[in-house]
Amino acid sequence: MSLELALVLALLGVAVVMFARGWPRTDAVALIMLAALPMTGVLTVQEALSGFSDSSVVLVAILFVIGEGLVRTGIAGRLGDWLAARTGGSGVRLMAMLMLAVAALGSMMSSTGVVAIFIPVVLRIAARLRIAPGRLMMPLGFAALISGMLTLVGTPPNLVVNSELLRHGHAGFGFFSFTPFGVPVLLLAIAYMAVAHRWLSDEAPPEAARGGGLTLAQLIRDYGLAENSWRLRVGQTSPLAGRSLAALRLRASHGLNVMAIERPQRFATRVLHAAGEAVPHVGDVLIVHFTGAEEELRALSGRLGLHALSFDDFDPVREPRPLGLAEVMIPPDSSLCGKSVLEAEFRSAYGLTAIGLRRGRAAWGEGFLEEKLQPGDTLLLTGPWKELRRSQRGKRPFLLLNQPDDLEELSPAADRAPHALLSLGVVVALMVSGVVPHAQAALIGGLMMLGFRCIDLDGAYRAIHWPTVVLIGGMLPFSLALQKTGGTALAAEGLVGLMGAAGPHALLASLFAATAVTGLFISNTATAVLMAPVALAVAEEMGLSPYPFAMIVALAASAAFMTPVSSPVNMLVLGPGRYRFGDFVRVGVPFAVLVMALSVALVPLLLPLR
């Protein structure tokens, strides 16, 4: 082993460790590697930056824009509504239809985005049919992962593998080259989940049994906050009257988290958002959260001129409904991860107030404001309807899960849905026909989305998930560095020497297993970057066609079923499904083995080895 190869492998090892630890962020790791690779002397600065000129990087970025156009025009939401209207009350039928719909949509847009769209839909369907969300969330996640096996653009690893084929002078895969493999895997998943869903949680959330719309009082009880929530009337002598909440600083000075203000009027009670500029008046009722003992609160109320009232009859979800509520979830790539609720400053940043925290099945009580937020945490937020609507359609670092029935789903460009479908159809037609390169076809579709005003230019830039773009562009030079130093050939020779005598099928199985296991620790995109050159080198070493080996790596990169940290998709469904780590191991590992067996049987059958 040369010194240059040792340096490249050392850098690769450091990158894998940082990926596995989850710190720093994956895109930051890619940038660190970009800075470090030229220092080894293996690559020039221009070669290290060459990943960003790869067509797959441009293609991934534009696909995010096209996917956002489908969301903004309401096409994705209408698909969910259509699904909800045709469930027929059968759990297995619902699950099958859900998986088919998610896989179909995910084959054309980001799988993470598809899951984000469908989580609220699934929660509403589960509540309506009184089905535990845990019976549906894992099938949702698995279908989203399998959607990457259906088309060339279904997931970034497919594009990475295709780019590697082109770099080696081969023709590359077609748009539907993956479909003959993805469809059987999807059908296998539906059959498997029809049995395995019995192993998942059958615990229905409290709202599933209620049947009615959500109320703040009900959700407070679900979050274990009822005993710490109080209604306090402002008395005649209270020093709080006439001063803004920002000036009073009740949370910092007294531990009182004001969630809302009830203001009695002649014919009704008006519910006000507890914004910093809100001013309590004599006779107003403060809805507060206080984690101390009841005796402490009563003593504090006496000093502040407040009188405790019953909490049972409070419900802000009524006419004129100025105040709303929602459950939100922290996704894996959220900027809120690692921050406490206080540090996140929900009230000043988003006009919303955090009143509860849930992690898995456990609701946090005292101290939730100081607890560091983690991916998959769910928060209970309250605030004005307009702010909740912004959370529903805007780019915020949390995902809206549940909201009252009268918070309508808004599609800002719903009248442009036919134009969005036309744009998508043009992209697919151009990619299938091969008239223009895939990246150019996506650019044409993205420009059509802009021209038809399905999405504006600012929205297009916001829609691109830049960490994914940076990750792909930053990790691609590793492939070149390993090839230049002989690392790829060395790995291929080792794999051939170990498994070559057992035959091509054993080699394919070994590549699938190595790719899937590597994907447990680093992203599937980075895994594809590392394993695709090895697969092609193995094919060359054995004198076999490169296509079966490239395909097996692409399929294995999407088979991230085994742990909740294998993919952002799994992290998204972890909280709403109320899963534990072991749930994914128990259900995902056997399925990954089945997918490997099916892939190893199908790939050489449909893509001849010679």
TrEMBL record:
Residues 217-306, 312-397 form the RCK C-terminal domain. GO terms for molecular function: monoatomic cation transmembrane transporter activity. The chain crosses the membrane at residues 29-45, 57-75, 95-123, 135-153, 173-195, 420-444, 464-482, 494-514, 520-539, 546-567, 587-607. Coiled coil: none annotated. It is a multi-pass membrane protein. PROSITE patterns: NA_SULFATE (PS01271), RCK_C (PS51202). This is SLC13 family permease.
